[in-house]
């Protein structure tokens, strides 16, 4: 968790949480066929809210034999109201998996070539060497536009309600040189998914959020998931997120999520994310050829497919998913490729929070190992 609007606040969180605790590895023992212990899961959540920097946390666990939700902490400072068991929250970069899924669907319809340069579809937009695959896999070299934003809490307060166009966000990046030659390195950049959103719009002829709604939200009946655009609020039951400004907590729940756009603006619930994650891993949204592509890693990108993190825990469990962070909220979506074990989590950050916490490791170990 984090106490301030730091640079990774719109970036994936799972890698940071696991790497800090030394949990990620490429080898390990065989997967133990045991059910997750609700008591241990609850202990881990309680640790997150008592000493791990979270004000409130909710989780949904599936292990094939049982399904349950758990929660800990408060929904709002100054109140004893508990976190809603199926409350809505900002999912941050989990949005990227929705967007990459739409583009892979378009490839399956022969409307897109993953290995074609982006400029084939959007002439002059970015460096002509960058391919669609490199954008989706974060190997494009495009400068991460969020690195240039005023994300210190005091400064972000001044722009929290600003409307951003994707073109504005992209110009922040393209006004700087590439970080490296396309395809030679992996570096997480939110700019890639601004480009991905623009590709969706060019290929479908409609706003990217409409494509996400028609191709994913409606077919899966994700009624509690929305692409909010300029809507600054979170409708329905939800916990509040906070940042610290001059040593005092500031409620950051209301903000204009256009600053994240296709890189991280979606609002959802653990229930809807569970349905989505199971559908992605279970091949319900993609044709077989594209299903192989979404989880395909490379020597340059060994733990990231196309909008999907792909990692192996020391116990031998392979997990797919994505993490997300946006001011006030940190989230996780994780599933085994066979969907037998799954975890969705949302935590709201509190002013006294730190970054990665061993409680995450305890939770992930209990669910997946």
UniProtKB/TrEMBL annotation:
Domain Beta-lactamase-related: 42-340
PANTHER family (alphabetical): D-ALANYL-D-ALANINE CARBOXYPEPTIDASE (PTHR46825:SF7), D-ALANYL-D-ALANINE-CARBOXYPEPTIDASE/ENDOPEPTIDASE AMPH (PTHR46825)
Protein name stated in the entry: Serine hydrolase
Domain of life: Bacteria
SUPFAM superfamilies: beta-lactamase/transpeptidase-like (SSF56601)
Signal peptide positions on this chain: 1-32
Record has Membrane as a keyword: no
């Amino acid at each position: 968790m984090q106490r301030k609007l730091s640079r990774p606040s719109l970036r994936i969180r799972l890698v940071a949480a696991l790497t800090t605790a030394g949990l990620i590895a490429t080898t390990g023992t065989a997967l133990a066929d045991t059910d997750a212990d609700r008591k241990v899961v609850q202990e881990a959540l309680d640790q997150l809210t008592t000493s791990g920097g979270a004000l409130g946390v909710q989780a949904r666990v599936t292990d094939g034999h049982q399904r349950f939700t758990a929660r800990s902490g408060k929904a709002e400072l100054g109140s004893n109201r508990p976190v809603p068991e199926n409350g809505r929250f900002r999912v941050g970069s989990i949005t990227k998996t929705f967007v990459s899924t739409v583009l892979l669907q378009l490839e399956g319809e022969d409307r897109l070539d993953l290995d074609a340069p982006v400029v084939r579809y959007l002439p002059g937009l970015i460096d002509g060497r960058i391919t669609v695959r490199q954008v989706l896999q974060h190997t494009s070299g495009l400068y991460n536009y969020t690195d240039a934003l005023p994300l210190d809490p005091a400064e972000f307060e001044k722009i929290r309600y600003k409307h951003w166009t994707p073109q504005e966000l992209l110009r922040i990046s393209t006004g700087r040189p590439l970080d490296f030659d396309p395809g030679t390195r992996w570096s997480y950049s939110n700019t890639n998914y601004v480009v991905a959103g623009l590709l969706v719009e060019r290929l479908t002829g409609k706003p990217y959020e409409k494509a996400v709604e028609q191709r994913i939200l409606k077919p899966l009946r994700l009624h509690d998931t929305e692409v909010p655009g300029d809507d600054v609020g979170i409708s329905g039951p939800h916990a509040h997120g906070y940042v610290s400004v001059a040593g005092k907590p500031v409620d950051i729940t209301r903000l204009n999520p256009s600053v994240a756009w296709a890189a991280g603006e979606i609002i959802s619930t653990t229930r809807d994310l569970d349905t989505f994650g199971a559908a992605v891993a279970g091949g319900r949204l993609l044709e077989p050829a594209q299903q192989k592509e979404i989880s395909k890693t490379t020597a340059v990108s060994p733990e990231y497919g196309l909008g999907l993190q792909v990692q192996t825990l020391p116990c031998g469990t392979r997990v797919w998913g994505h993490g997300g962070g946006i001011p006030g909220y940190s989230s996780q979506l994780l599933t085994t490729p066979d969907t037998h074990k799954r975890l969705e989590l949302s935590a709201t950050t509190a002013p006294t929070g730190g970054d990665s916490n061993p409680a995450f490791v305890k939770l992930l170990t209990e669910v997946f190992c």
